[in-house]
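Aggregate trends can hide what the representation actually does to any particular protein. In the encoding step, the backbone of a single protein was reduced to a row of integers, each denoting a local shape. The record that follows shows the chain in one-letter code together with its fold in token form.

***
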Amino acid sequence: MEPGEKYIEILLADDDADDRAFFREALEESGIPSKLTTVVDGEKLTNYLSTIKTPPPPDVIFLDINMPYKDGKACLREIRKNDKFRNIPIIMFSTSTYAGDIEETFEDGASLYISKADFFENETSMLKKLFSHNWNENMLNVAKERFVFRS
């Protein structure tokens, strides 16, 4: 990345080391100018966010549902209650395709839902599609029909 180049600051909360590594690799291969920060569980995510005193917070949060100490659903609800983070797109990033998880996270204010199985089939093109022109505006008030993101 060139000095002064605008990049997307991504925060990934996922307890699976392989998934974090694959995500980092896909991001690098996609060529999307970005800075990736990772945390390994929900407790570390909320601790990390609490250290951010002034904006800018991350541009987007990828949030696994099944994590130790504090799961992604609890983190989502907590983040959405905090005015400082209310408008950050939160993408649920999970192995779960259970309709109840999808419905609950939509109702609790997640921006999108990505199945890890779908993501890891075609991660580079999915990231390019996700972070296309005006990506952050496209994640605001997503209709329920478009909530589950596919490549």
About this structure: Helices lie at 17-30, 42-50, 72-81, 99-107, 116-121, 123-130, 135-138.
